[in-house]
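Incident log, support desk, overnight shift.

02:14 A customer reports that sequence design results differ from what the structure should imply. Their input is reproduced verbatim below. On-call engineer (initials T.W.) acknowledged and began investigating.
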C-alpha cells in the first residue's frame, strides 16, 4: 500500500473539513505503518458546537484513507465510524445514542472497518470534547441483538477507554455505561 498516497488523501480530507465552518477537527494521526489491523492514518472530527445550544445533537466522525480509495485514488466514503450523541448544555451531560463502525454486514461497506481502533478514536474524541466544554457525565445504553459475545466485545471497548459498564444477568443483551468526567 502506498503510504505517501494515503497521507495525501488524508491531508486533502483534513483540508475539506477545515473549510467547512460547521465541522471541527478533534484529532488526527498520520503515521503510516504496516502494523495492521490498527489504522494509523485518520482524522476524527465533529459537527458539535458549544454555541448551538438549541441543536443538542451532534456526531463525531472518523475518516481513514486505509482501504478507502477507488481506482482514481479518491476516497470512496467520507467516514467509517460515526458516534452520535445528545447533549444537555444546562445539565452538562452527554448521552451516546449510536456508535457505528462500517462492517461487513453494512450495505455501505466494501471493507470491514471493525477491529481497527476507529471506535476507540471516536470515544476518546468524545471524552476530550466533553472535558473541554465542561461536561460532567457521559452515559448511554449498549445493546446487542446478535448475542452475548457481541455485547462483551462492545463492553470491552467501552471499558478500555474508561467507561463503567453495568449489565443485568437476566437480560444479557443490554448494558448501561457511564463515564464521569473530572475537572
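02:41 Re-run completed on a clean worker. Output:
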Amino acid at each position: 500500500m502506498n503510504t505517501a498516497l494515503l497521507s495525501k488523501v488524508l491531508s486533502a480530507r483534513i483540508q475539506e473539513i477545515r473549510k467547512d465552518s460547521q465541522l471541527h477537527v478533534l484529532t488526527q494521526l498520520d503515521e503510516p505503518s504496516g502494523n495492521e489491523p490498527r489504522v494509523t492514518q485518520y482524522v476524527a472530527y465533529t459537527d458539535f458546537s458549544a454555541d448551538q445550544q438549541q441543536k443538542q445533537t451532534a456526531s463525531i466522525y472518523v475518516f481513514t484513507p486505509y482501504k478507502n480509495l477507488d481506482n482514481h485514488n479518491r476516497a470512496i466514503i467520507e467516514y467509517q465510524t460515526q458516534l452520535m450523541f445528545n447533549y444537555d448544555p444546562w445539565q452538562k451531560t452527554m448521552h451516546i445514542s449510536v456508535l457505528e463502525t462500517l462492517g461487513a454486514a453494512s450495505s455501505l461497506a466494501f471493507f470491514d472497518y471493525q477491529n481497527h481502533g476507529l471506535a476507540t478514536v471516536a470515544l476518546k474524541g468524545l471524552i476530550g470534547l466533553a472535558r473541554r466544554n465542561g461536561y460532567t457525565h457521559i452515559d448511554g445504553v449498549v445493546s446487542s441483538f446478535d448475542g452475548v459475545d457481541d455485547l462483551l466485545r462492545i463492553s470491552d471497548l467501552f471499558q478500555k477507554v474508561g467507561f463503567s459498564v453495568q449489565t443485568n444477568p437476566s437480560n444479557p443483551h443490554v448494558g448501561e455505561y457511564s463515564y464521569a468526567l473530572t475537572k
